[in-house]
Prior knowledge:
This protein has 606 residues and is of the alpha/beta class. It is built from 18 helices and 26 strands. The radius of gyration is 25 Å and the shape is globular. 56% of the residues are buried. It binds 2-deoxy-2-amino glucitol-6-phosphate (AGP). Residues 298-301, 345-347, 350, 353, 396-398, 486, 602-603 line the site of 2-deoxy-2-amino glucitol-6-phosphate.
Amino acid sequence: MCGIVGYVGKQNCTDVLINSLSRLEYRGYDSAGIAVFENGEIKVVKSKGRLTDLSARMETEGRPSGNVGIGHTRWATHGEPSDVNSHPHSGADVTLVHNGIIENYKKLKEFLIREGKEFKSETDTEVVAQLISYYYNGDPVEAIIKASKDIEGSFALGVVFRDFTDTIFALRRESPLIVGVGEDESFIASDVPAILQYTRNYYLLEPNEIAVLSPYSTKIYDQHYQAIEKELKTADWDMDAAEKQGYEHFMLKEIHEQPTAIKTTIASRITDGLPDLEECGITCEKLNSFRNIFIVACGTAMHAGVVGKYVIEKLARVPVVVDIASEFRYREPIVGDGDLVIIISQSGETADSLAALRLAKENGAKTLAIVNAKGSSIAREADMLMYTHAGPEIAVASTKAYMVQIAVMYLFAFELALAKGKISEDECKKLVSGLQNIPDVISGMLEDIDDSQYAAASLVNADSLLYIGRGLDYALSMEGSLKLKEISYIHSESYAAGELKHGTISLISENMPVIAVVTQPELAQKTVSNIKEVKARGAYVILVCSASITVDEDAYDLKLVVPDTDPLLMPMPAVVPLQLIAYYTSVLRGNDVDKPRNLAKSVTVE
Ligand code: AGP
């Protein structure tokens, strides 16, 4: 989704803005622009395309020179990606950049047109620029507050006023925004990596707070124009965490970071060999009070929830419903007092997941957030919180975040099963120890990835493929399929292997490769029968299977072996070859692996 940056200080503002925007590229965008005060005038340069296109545009239109300005990467919502729809947008006195959606922009636009304002773009953003200008009467903060009262929707804004050449203003409602504080300089940004090369100190703006940044002071006001004091936070990531460190892509680096991410995420939550989730507000008493569990999330995070469902139901015998957040929020779910709603999110800002969390709370359910981004909206609003410690995930395709989401799902399931008396302490300790061993298993697997590369090479020209599995393997195949399609642009679906012959098997031919996941011994021979059915119909079969499961050699074309662990824990190592197949297929097809087309890392609009 859109990225906002802003700078006030002594450095060359254009350089700082471009540098900072490049750290937000992972969010996904289709155009970019900056506005910089040059000799007291606001100079705007913007362009459809990537930051390289913006730099090329500056070669012809001139590179703004100054110390104060704002910048933006746009992920189109209102109006196609084009030069004119790119941000910044301006009104008479105001130029601004915007992240989020203005829901009532049409009504506001009609009003402003009646007031004689003219619009250049199709965006909702230009409406905000015109509206703030409309209210502007010499006091920028007052104008921003007045306009914000008229605006419905979720947004963050970075604003400059023609009359205030050394100041930038920012407002946040739903969309995230931070204010970075350096020595005699300050910044605004949608996310911490944008400012890490300059400072690690920042304020997290709360909804409806307004920041006023000049070189020597940073002031923050509430919506009543009262100055407020805020806690200065320090980012615990360093630049290394946000750099590729020699890997060709962030995705590959993040796949390799998985063993460490698991260790960091689980280490402090295990005491004497048993799960210990008290610091997250999860006690035995609470666990015993929940009737039903809902897991609500989007995309990969939702797939982690599906793994969680299988494991919780198997071990703790508590019913779990997994819901796609965008469905949950509008289907009047039967959820309330006595229920637990678990929201899983890497970014903690996904609009549908946040709305689902709020709905669950309104209905009286208790909420638990499993979130990676510190201080994000979902993390702050949930009743209980379990951070995953994956560090910054930059690639749009989520890998290490999924891995640690699963890791905490296991810890939660173990604790719940223990609290419910469904497993003994000894059984629980065995499971925990198995989980602690997974990082080493994955590290071993990552030492030899030739088979995954070979599998990718065999898929590179496919138009469409199927992932199949049963039970946890089906849950895993959902994630494998999503990963492949989002970065390779090859159509793929995941299917419960036993469901194939109810329709989908008609698609099978020599042109439809099948990736079959077989890691669950009790279901293995059932899936093998399904594999033989697709093989007999001409499919090229790639088998991803545990070392100890035997499959007849004529049932597959290529086999990727996953070292044995407790079958319940197999999704963790078994997802690695699926991630690598997706990664190398994308590389071989020459795609932009870390920033796939049309996708955004943090989906802050519904
Ligand atoms: C994963 O590879 C995706 N890019 C996407 O499905 C993602 O998991 C989803 O948008 C949810 O994001 P969140 O975890 O930040 O809420």
